[in-house]
Amino acid sequence: MLAVDVEATGTEAHKHSILSVGAVDLDNPARPTFYAECRAWDGAKIEDEALAVNGFTREEAGDPNKQSEGELVHQFITWALKAGDRTFAGQNPSFDRDFLKYAAGRAGHTEWPFAHRTIDSHSLAWMHMVKRGLTPPLDPEKKHSALNLDAILLYCGIPEEPTPHNALTGAKSHAEVISRLLSDKKLLPEFEQFAIPWV
């Protein structure tokens, strides 16, 4: 299973661009992680709100010295195909999968080598809480789940993700909470000092 996190210029894969990708192989956490940045593809929309979340500037998003989105996605696919289980996992992993799939299409890949199915840490955390007799938090205004990544990290005994968001920090956070939720085990040395609350 691959914990994947994409930072982008917006939220719509068909009109926004990847800016960075981080990934961790959950089945082989000792394997080197993946992290790469790129410039936005020519014509991609760039939203100020997205840049505020991921910390990139417009200048960095368009830096001609950075590799292209196509080059980044080629590197990611080469890295990911070495995994025994290539299922994408993370918080709302369909976002990350779709961005990578659109980028692969723009880069000229004729076949997408990854599955449509993903593992969502939100669903895992929701189920874990319910099985423990807890009530998952709801957003009081929007009346939907309030289990974002920070809430899941805190539930799993880990401090909130630092801001601005970084794709590799995000991928490592996804990997760690998934390991704790599924196996009651710590995964990465960065989180070793933090106890699992329910163990």
Estimate the mean pLDDT confidence.
97
How do the strands line up in the largest sheet? 3-2-1-4-5
CATH superfamily: Ribonuclease H-like superfamily/Ribonuclease H
Helix content: 25-40%
Number of domains: 1
CATH architecture group name: 2-Layer Sandwich
Strand share of the residues? 5-15%
CATH top level?
A: Alpha Beta
Q: What general outline do the C-alpha atoms trace?
A: globular
Low-confidence region ranges: none
| Oligomeric state of this protein | single chain
Class inferred from helices and paired strands? alpha/beta
| Helix segment tally | 7
Structure summary, number of beta strands: 5
Map the helices and strands.
Elements lengths: L1 E7 L9 E8 L8 E4 L10 H7 L3 H4 L7 H12 L7 E3 L2 H14 L11 E3 H11 L17 H7 L11 H17 L16
Parallel strand pairs: 1-4, 4-5
Antiparallel strand pairs: 1-2, 2-3
Write up what this structure looks like.
The protein is α/β, with parallel strands linked by helices and 199 residues long. It has one domain: Nucleotidyltransferase, domain 5 (2-Layer Sandwich). The chain is built from 7 helices and 5 strands; from the N terminus they run βββαααβαβααα. It has helices spanning 48-54, 58-61, 69-80, 93-106, 121-131, 149-155, 167-183, and strands spanning 2-8, 18-25, 34-37, 88-90, 118-120. It has a 5-stranded mixed sheet, sandwiched between helices. α4 links the parallel β4 and β5. α3 packs across α4 and α5 packs parallel to α7 (167-183). The model has no long low-confidence stretch (mean pLDDT 97).
